[in-house]
Design a protein that fits this description.
Kinase-like_dom_sf, NH2Glyco/OHUrea_AB-resist_kin, about 300 residues, Phosphorylase Kinase, domain 1, alpha+beta, five-stranded antiparallel beta sheet, phosphotransferase activity, alcohol group as acceptor, Aminoglycoside 3'-phosphotransferase, Chain: A, domain 2
């Protein structure tokens, strides 16, 4: 009745094991309930499915929407609350949700072109900056989101994993990343609600605003932290070209957002190394290209 790609099924089994199998078996019933509950007609899932099932749909008025059914990652409550709090400012609007089935109905962003497709990198960075300016807002009391400091505990787990050593991480680079993360976290500006994973594939062309974001993690931290994911994505492969692009991105975003250049650069470096560790935790994979990027960022 509903299209669930085999590749996505296998990915769920790899990431979630028995829980993934049980969720895949429930997924058709979850989607059927969405159709009945909200008067939707569910269409074809998007081709770039990764961690969750995301599909095009239309509502009872024939308007295009998106249905996102969350796999058992445990992230749904935070993502849903982040989307709700952003309330359409810089973000696709939340239209309906169900906490039991962990599913959301979201505004469909059209034409939906990824920011990644913009060939002019300066134009792309300006588009991302316009989204950031709309997103950031005070954190409400009792918000359920992790803090930047919580995410930084990944460095502790890294050291424990390698029995106090550095494993495949270059020793000097890891030590620099740890030091910078601690210094920056201890001197943060007033924290705001951040997207937490704002890169070129999570920003789409839309109609009510040129660019809007999707898929927030929900994170509490200073604005300069947000830029790290944007810096390390969609880069040229050669180190010399990377350094040139990174230097320009850091300068441009510091100017357009009114943030300190050095904090942007240092957060970017520390986050890059931390993101490689997350790859080890989640996929048992060392992303060497991200370590190369971190080295490049340390030299600009």
């Amino acid at each position: 009745m509903f299209e669930i790609p085999e590749q996505f099924i296998q990915r769920m089994l790899v990431f979630h094991g028995v829980k993934g199998q049980a969720w895949i078996e429930r997924l058709p019933a979850i989607l059927a309930a969405c159709e009945q509950r909200w008067g939707l007609t569910i269409g074809t899932p998007f081709s770039n499915l990764s961690f969750h099932y995301v599909t095009a749909a239309t509502n009872r008025d024939g308007e295009p929407v998106v249905v996102k059914a969350s796999s058992p990652t445990g992230e749904f409550p935070k993502e849903m609350e982040a989307v709700r709090l952003f309330d359409g400012h810089g973000m696709a609007q939340l239209q309906a949700f169900d906490t039991d089935d962990e599913v959301m109905v979201l505004e469909r962003l059209l034409p939906g072109t990824l920011l990644q497709a913009v060939k002019d990198d300066e134009q792309a960075m300006s588009g991302a900056a316009s989204v950031m300016k709309q997103l950031w807002r005070p954190v409400p009391a009792g918000a359920p989101f992790p803090t930047v400091q919580d995410w930084g505990k990944g460095f502790t787990r890294l050291r424990q994993h390698y029995d106090g050593g550095h494993g495949p991480f270059p020793k000097a680079l890891l030590e620099q990343a740890e030091r910078l993360f601690t210094e920056l976290a201890d001197s943060m500006a007033e924290p705001v609600l951040l997207h937490g994973d704002l890169h070129q594939e999570n920003i789409l062309a839309a109609q009510r605003h040129p660019w809007l974001a999707i898929d927030p993690k929900g994170l509490i931290g200073e604005p300069a932290y947000e830029i790290g994911a944007l810096l390390r994505n969609n880069l040229p492969l050669q180190m010399s070209s990377q350094k040139r692009v990174l230097a320009r991105r850091v300068d441009q975003l510091a100017e357009e957002l009114g943030l300190d250049r050095e904090r942007i650069r240092c957060w970017g470096l520390a986050q890059a190394v931390l993101s490689v560790w997350w790859g080890v935790e989640d996929e048992n994979r060392v992303y060497e290209e991200t370590l190369i990027y971190a080295e490049a960022l340390s030299q600009i």
